């Protein structure tokens, strides 16, 4: 039913005022203004302000100590040390100390800044009218004046203890990031340029764990070998075998095209790195008739009868060859290490 259909005597004499409106006011939505400012204890008592200043300084100093502890953790705790910490159980001492000290360093800076803002900086609320995007010269001058006033009200110049400890905390915290770069892993040094192979190291069959003899390798066969002294249960086995894994192939000497390959072989038995020179995949697919070996990852193909040169695929250079011979016991042995780094190229390989 519309209002036109309601009898006039049932209509209210006048509409009730809107919620929040003031009786008799022209604008029922008038701005009530800001409440009266209530000063804090620090605003009227310098001793309370000093206590707050010391509390903020303590937070910043705690952050500095935690950052120093973060850096010291790298020196104090070995990477494999496990400790029991309630209620976390058995955890890495290094990881726990790094997380704890870095967390305290960052939290202390945040807590100190919040306490500084709530107790020492001015808390007077200021209302400012919106203005056009393009500021007038008077507005620009006002902004600069407000900035100067804010800097003055922050007590940044007067509270030297807060300022100096804050600078110290902010200067030390980035050192945590520098130290984290060192945690990316040990520096390679010359490790990428050498393997476990050395003069006199016997070739061990990876299937039987027995020394290889020339009669064990038949023409057209493919055998995988590792250096003598490398055990599968050793903690660095994967690191070492990733560089030292070897392919042993026997080719008729008359079919070997490369002169150096023939000289470094023993009665047609040649030894090449098993690690592809593209991205380091293990090579295992051998074509007996063509003497080609294929990497299963990206199909790089190498000719083992011609110095293991690349004949197809993305690999950048030939497979390194290991010079071999026979020792007094009749077992195959290395006559030195590879003459070049194995696996993919790296920027400082030279």
UniProtKB/TrEMBL annotation:
Which Pfam family name is an example for this entry?
A: Rieske
- Region entry Disordered, spans: 1-37
Arranged from A to Z, the UniProt key words for this protein are: 2Fe-2S, Cell membrane, Disulfide bond, Electron transport, Iron, Iron-sulfur, Membrane, Metal-binding, Oxidoreductase, Respiratory chain, Transmembrane, Transmembrane helix, Transport
Chain ranges passing through the membrane? 55-76, 96-117, 161-181
Extract the coiled-coil ranges from the record. Answer: none
Cellular component GO terms held in the UniProt record: plasma membrane
Q: What residue stretch is flagged as signal peptide?
A: none
Listed GO MF terms: 2 iron, 2 sulfur cluster binding; metal ion binding; monooxygenase activity; oxidoreductase activity, acting on paired donors, with incorporation or reduction of molecular oxygen
Q: Where is this chain's protein located in or outside the cell?
A: Cell membrane
Tell me where on the tree of life, at the top rank, the source sits.
Bacteria
**Classification via InterPro entries:** QcrA_N, Rieske_2Fe-2S, Rieske_2Fe-2S_sf, Rieske_Fe-S_prot
Topologically, how does it sit relative to the membrane? Multi-pass membrane protein
Q: What is its main location?
A: membrane
Q: Where is the Rieske domain?
A: 269-333
Family in the record? Belongs to the Rieske iron-sulfur protein family.
Q: How does it assemble?
A: The cytochrome bc1 complex is composed of a cytochrome b (QcrB), the Rieske iron-sulfur protein (QcrA) and a diheme cytochrome c (QcrC) subunit.
Q: What does this protein do?
A: Iron-sulfur subunit of the cytochrome bc1 complex, an essential component of the respiratory electron transport chain required for ATP synthesis. The bc1 complex catalyzes the oxidation of menaquinol and the reduction of cytochrome c in the respiratory chain. The bc1 complex operates through a Q-cycle mechanism that couples electron transfer to generation of the proton gradient that drives ATP synthesis.
Name this polypeptide is given = Cytochrome bc1 complex Rieske iron-sulfur subunit
Q: Which organism is it from?
A: Streptomyces brevispora
């Amino acid at each position: 039913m519309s209002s036109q259909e309601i009898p006039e005597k049932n209509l209210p004499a006048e509409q009730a005022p809107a919620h929040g409106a003031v009786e008799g006011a022209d604008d029922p939505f008038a701005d009530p203004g800001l409440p009266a400012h209530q000063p804090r204890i620090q605003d009227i008592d310098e001793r309370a302000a000093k206590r707050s200043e010391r509390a903020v300084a303590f937070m910043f100093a705690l952050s500095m100590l935690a950052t120093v502890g973060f850096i010291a953790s790298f020196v104090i705790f070995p990477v494999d040390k496990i400790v029991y910490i309630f209620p976390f159980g058995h955890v890495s001492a290094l990881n726990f100390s790094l997380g704890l000290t870095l967390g305290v360093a960052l939290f202390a800076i945040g807590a100190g800044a919040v306490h500084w803002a709530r107790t020492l900086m001015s808390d007077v609320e200021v209302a400012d009218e919106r203005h056009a995007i393009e500021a007038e010269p008077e507005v620009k001058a006002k902004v600069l004046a407000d900035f100067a006033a804010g800097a003055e009200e922050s007590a940044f110049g007067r509270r030297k203890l807060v300022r100096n400890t804050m600078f110290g905390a902010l200067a030390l915290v980035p050192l945590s990031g520098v130290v984290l770069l060192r945690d990316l892993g040990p520096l390679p040094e010359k490790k990428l340029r050498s393997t476990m192979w050395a003069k006199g190291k016997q070739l061990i069959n990876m299937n039987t764990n027995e020394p290889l003899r020339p009669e064990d390798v038949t023409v057209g066969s493919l055998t995988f070998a590792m250096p003598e002294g490398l055990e599968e249960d050793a903690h660095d086995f994967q690191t070492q075998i990733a560089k030292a894994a070897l392919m042993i192939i026997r080719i008729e000497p008359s079919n070997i095209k490369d002169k150096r390959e023939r000289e470094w072989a023993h009665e047609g038995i040649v030894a090449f790195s098993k690690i592809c020179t593209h991205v380091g995949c293990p090579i295992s697919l051998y074509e007996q008739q063509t003497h080609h070996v294929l990497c299963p990852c990206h199909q790089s193909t190498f000719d083992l009868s011609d110095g293991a040169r690349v004949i197809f695929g993305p690999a950048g250079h030939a497979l390194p060859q290991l010079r071999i011979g026979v020792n007094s016991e009749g077992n195959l042995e290395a006559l030195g290490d590879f003459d070049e780094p194995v696996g993919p190229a790296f920027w400082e390989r030279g």
